[in-house]
């Protein structure tokens, strides 16, 4: 399993993470995607069918790697955690090649949206769909009750904090709460959409919450001091930020501004 203590796999190299989940790292590394998009192949041990989660970029080599990961198993489901192109671009092509059903919450990708708390069978494998808005309004995570793992898309990354759409920061905190509840009983590992697996899930979720709260406190304090323009807040909070990450920082700041305005977030003392 790829964790923070081990080297990432090379793109296209199959990397088993759990008994039921295999990682195929996509070749689309950049400042926003880290090493690339994590494509997951899910199957019950010994099954002749599987599902592919977040097929990633429309790339011939990556398509071939996904099919190699499936092996002799038939791909019967193709799912995307949310509609951003680094997760969904290959989805239609993969579904067409394999004859699989394509599912997504976003109706531009699929006319079979997930239902919150839906239990889905992939052969003998049971998967629970969890609506976890925040990063986007169409974000879903997928829990594998048999082993306690959760595929988190961009709701929880292998490191750092995801972008949260302005107006959805409250939803994001609620989604972290929900994941904590799901994982409290028998959670084993978080399998994110980018970055390494997180084998100690509950403390990781709390760290993500506290990091976001610290940023929110910083924005609230800056706004109380009269600094309320997004670009000025980016300059204040992210000194020395690489230019290709500035848009991401601005979106996160805008989400914090919206949250402060709508919740009367207290200024830290």
UniProtKB/TrEMBL annotation:
Q: Which Pfam families match?
A: Lactamase_B (PF00753)
Q: In this protein, which residues make up the domain named Metallo-beta-lactamase?
A: 36-194
Entry-linked InterPro entries: Metallo-B-lactamas, RibonucZ/Hydroxyglut_hydro, Sec-metab_biosynth-thioest
Domain of life, per UniProt, equals Bacteria
Q: Which Gene3D superfamilies match?
A: Ribonuclease Z/Hydroxyacylglutathione hydrolase-like (3.60.15.10)
The record ties this protein, via SUPFAM superfamilies, to: Metallo-hydrolase/oxidoreductase (SSF56281)
The record's section on PANTHER family has: ENDORIBONUCLEASE LACTB2 (PTHR23131:SF0)
What is the name listed in the Swiss-Prot or TrEMBL entry for this protein?
MBL fold metallo-hydrolase
User: Which organism is this protein's natural source?
Assistant: Blastococcus goldschmidtiae
